[in-house]
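Thread: Newbie trying to understand structure tokens

Hi all, I'm a second-year student working on a class project, and my supervisor (Dr. K.) asked me to get a predicted structure for one chain before our next meeting. I've only ever worked with sequences, so writing a 3D structure as a token string is new to me. If someone could post the tokens and maybe explain what I'm looking at, I'd be very grateful. Here's the chain:
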Amino acid sequence: MHVRIRAAVLLAFASTLASCAGGAPPSSPSPNGEDDETKTIAEVTESSRRIDGLFTLFQDTITGETHLLVRPEQVDREYVYFAHTVDGVVDAGHFRGNFRSNKVVSVRRHFDQVLFVTQPTWLYFDSTSALSRAADANVSPAVLAAAEIVARDSATGDVLIAADPLFASEAFSQVKPSPRPNADEDDFRLGSLSEERSRIVDLRSYPLNTDVVVDYVYQEQYPTNGGGAGVVDARAVTIRLQHSFIEMPENDYRPRFDDPRVGYFLDRQNDMLSTSATPYRDLITRWHLVKRDPSAAVSEPIEPIVWWIENTTPHEFRETIRNAVLEWNRAFEQAGFRNAVVVEVQPDDADWDAGDIRYNVLRWTSSPNPPFGGYGPSFTNPRTGQILGADIMLEYVFVTNRVRQDRIFGRAALDMMEPFDAAAIEHAEAAGECSLGLHLHNNALFGLQALRAAGASEVEVTEYVQQSLHYLLLHEVGHTLGLNHNMKASQARPIEELSNRSLTAGDGLYGSVMDYPDVNLALPGEPQGEYWMTTVGPYDRWAIEFGYSTALESAEAEEARLETILVRSTEPQLVFGNDADDMRSPGKAIDPRVNINDMSSDAIGYAIHKIELADRLLDGLLERYHEPGESWHELLTAYLILTGHQGNAGAVLSRYIGGVYVDRAVQGQPGATQPFTPVARADQKRAMDALAEHIFAPDAFGASPELLAHLAMQRRDFDFFSDTEDPKPHQRILNIQSGVLNHLLHPVVLRRVTDSRLYGNSYPVAEVLADLTSAIFEADARTSVNTMRQALQIEYVTRLAAMVDEESEAKHDAISKSAALQQLR
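---
Reply by user tm_fold:
Sure, no problem. This is what the structure looks like when written as tokens:
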């Protein structure tokens, strides 16, 4: 021991002397980080299998240890990094096909290290400007990982780094979600990442991309929440993630810039040298389509967008899926392309799987806790907006006859009663999540109640389900083409046109398939139109024309050409508003025309129609579900769906009170109005009167004692330990009524009622609350008060008292407090 220490001291002393004399220590690395004692690549990988491709990978056949080879020409180059969940658990924010990180990563060399660095792609500097030399000022690049060089080839300059520490950690992509500030302490959480149990399970490398699949295992010795049905044991939860490095595309792709009048997903950029008040240079996301014949008005593309129907897809759905996907070719023809979209079926003996990012796959799953009914994300080159790949996930829950079991009575089928959670919505949008499938599933179940009441045949029911699946595919494919939601599109037609099949079959039931519409159902005895959109709408064709039509060479001429397309945005069937604009949550957004669960240019009238239809369907419900040998669970589901739709219709009505119409047309555009126009007093009063009659009235949500006595869940093991099995109609109805009050009494809404009086609103807060008080109390003035109304009245008075309480968390303005105090008195 002493000999080794003495030798080390002498060596250090000799090194110091050599340094002072201008020499170098015997073991000093060479200028590019090479060490004479470093092993060769051949020595380190002697017992490894080699996987060649964009990056060469090695995996030891004995220990499983992995290495990554970096060639000199790969240093100081950028790559597109993309990660997605191969399999996970919904409780932890992961599900099969969930697209995660999408960014630009460059490989750097620093002496004996290889660094992986990501730079901001959202800051743009014109390279011809002298200021571009300061592009990195006050910008912090992220060094995601630093790997020591373990071997090198002195002849080629290739270096080898250990891959396990890079990929089996969360260096490239955060896998465990960050805790949300307002999260419940009892929420399911992943434990600590286990280095011993986490492992690389698959390595693939191709000429243009390299994939590494990792099982991340999170351990928690004493979990307080065991998770849902997808969690086998909360002490050890596995998330399987695929990391992909993709060659940065080198082609003649020309970015196209966003315009707020049409809705595409974006790769954001700020022009750092612009003097504009809005220095945005946002890139829409779209595929690289090039005409095979540039001179033709309509031409096939050189490379079409090819979709593969995964071989897990039920055979009975494949033709419906194919037809829906190919329907988008109608939109591309308006943009100058024929057969832009192609559909193939994955053979059962295919030598590739759906995780291969070179294939765009329509995938089918059946999850224990489905996060969606359909989901259509894509990944891009963030520097240009070019879409590089996409998948569509379909959940079998979409075609089942059940509601979400975790919200069985109190909240089931109430899509618009959830409080506004900006952080959750922002996270969902950033992840490209789409909940249309679950929304559409609830609407489909409502329609099945109407068909059953009308005595529809099995053929008619099958056609109905296939039509709803067709719409789901139209919507999700739209996402993969770059389109985001258009929650305003269902306003495109007047009510009387909804039953005209000859009209809607050719030009669409509403403006776009990118909406979350209500199912189109007629009252008994009235003509029935299409239930769902069966073709791409006028907005879809117009949006695809804007995004995909061939650009002109001249920048000035191209800008003028695009403006001739965009100037049509004021046409009724081309209106647009996305998730940021919709009013699905109490207090959120301002334009009631941008919403889910609505229909027609008279959404107030359609909501009233929907409530009346549900009332009729509730009559005789018990007789329709009286089947010997069956439990009453299906009857319970039917009741939840029908009352849920009444509640959602009530929420739609409430949004017109205090609403403000928004027009985002540019100055001087034909057909433009002013940016903000309060909803007309007559329409606000009409909505309030409808709420008084259908949501707050003593006989609202009438259900016979016989029906309520049969709303029984099917017994399963010991599931009734946590809650009693009896129906709780007071809770159900009060939840619906409270959801409407959540919006009408929201401090943001009441403040807007007062603000908008300065530019046209003639329905003041004092009158709004007076009408609300009358709706909740007046009918009981000279008669007894039933228990449903008692619960509502106590809830309302409690809320008014909270509004005037200085210590209340609700921050109402002085005008609202004064009106509330007046009503209390």
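A couple of things are worth pointing out once you decode it. The radius of gyration is 31 Å. The chain is about 30% helix and 15% strand. Feel free to ask follow-ups in this thread.
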